[in-house]
Amino acid sequence: MLQAGWLRGDAVLALLLATRVVAAFEPITVGIAIGAASAITGYLTYNDIYCRFAECCREERPLNASALKLDLEEKLFGQHLATEVILKALTGFKNNKNPKKPLTLSLHGWAGTGKNFVSQIVAENLHPKGLKSNFVHLFVSTLHFPHEQKIKLYQDQLQKWIRGNVSACANSVFIFDEMDKLHPGIIDAIKPFLDYYEQVDGVSYRKAIFIFLSNAGGDLITKTALDFWRAGRKREDIHLKDLEPVLSVGVFNNKHSGLWHSGLIDKNLIDYFIPFLPLEYRHVKMCVRAEMRARGSAVDEDIVSSVADEMTLFPKDEKIYSDKGCKTVQSRLDFH
């Protein structure tokens, strides 16, 4: 019996190794090899084996809330509101077996405050390959929708792209970067997909996630943060209720927000407007330390201070916030 077990194990191993080789050539051959392995073992399904060598859309894959929390707390600096709201929003959404609509988040703040970085963290926690996943789709306004005279074409393409990808994977993630550079009206093409419909043309979008990234509203966020600072209050005292209503109205009325007079706001289809606060000098130093560790370098506080000192701070008199956040930390560190 022991020898038979070895033989079966060797056969399965050989077949699994064969799938690695043939996977690059022909799916049918892969299927035959996997089917043979399943028949020998009696307990491995086609999907079990196939998904070891190819990315699969696993709708039942739970969110590791502890891992997401750790990522946000250890890698995102100075953004207590974003950390709290994103963690609660994603955890609640993924724990809901029957959501009534897709989760839609709109992230706002000046460049370098962490919006893109957060979208990367979210993608990696939802799909192992992160932004490289076949189920995570990134749209950049200036790249994918550059021409104002082609708005109707972009709307049609966007609908087809989202419909096709959600049909293939219900828990797809769609990230729209540079929303403030998106021509007005384009984003409203996806309004039916974000609404409270059980299905649209036979497809359910309720388990998908949409994330908008925008610099629009950065002035409103900075004003609130500065008001708190001048009143002697800590930035951690700022609550979502202090900013979200002002932010949603401001973006709705901003012709350069990508959401100007958008039905997405008018019909309350965006679940959270998440403000990213301007970063202070101390936060820039945190970014430098994190980048040095990521490069495998020992943290040198002299270099940390030198890089942080190169940043331009505003307002002119108080010099509190970095005008580029942490955006240029990597390139500046290269010179030290």
TrEMBL record:
Gene that this polypeptide is encoded by: TOR1B
Keywords from the UniProt entry: ATP-binding, Chaperone, Endoplasmic reticulum, Glycoprotein, Hydrolase, Membrane, Nucleotide-binding, Nucleus, Signal
Name of the protein described by the UniProt record: Torsin
Any single GO CC term annotated in Swiss-Prot or TrEMBL for this entry: endoplasmic reticulum lumen
Biological process annotations from GO: endoplasmic reticulum organization; nuclear membrane organization; protein localization to nucleus
Residues annotated as binding ATP: 109-116
Signal sequence range: 1-24
Catalysed reactions, as listed in the record: ATP + H2O = ADP + phosphate + H(+)
Protein species of origin: Callithrix jacchus (White-tufted-ear marmoset)
Family membership: Belongs to the ClpA/ClpB family. Torsin subfamily.
MF terms in GO: ATP binding; ATP hydrolysis activity; identical protein binding; kinesin binding
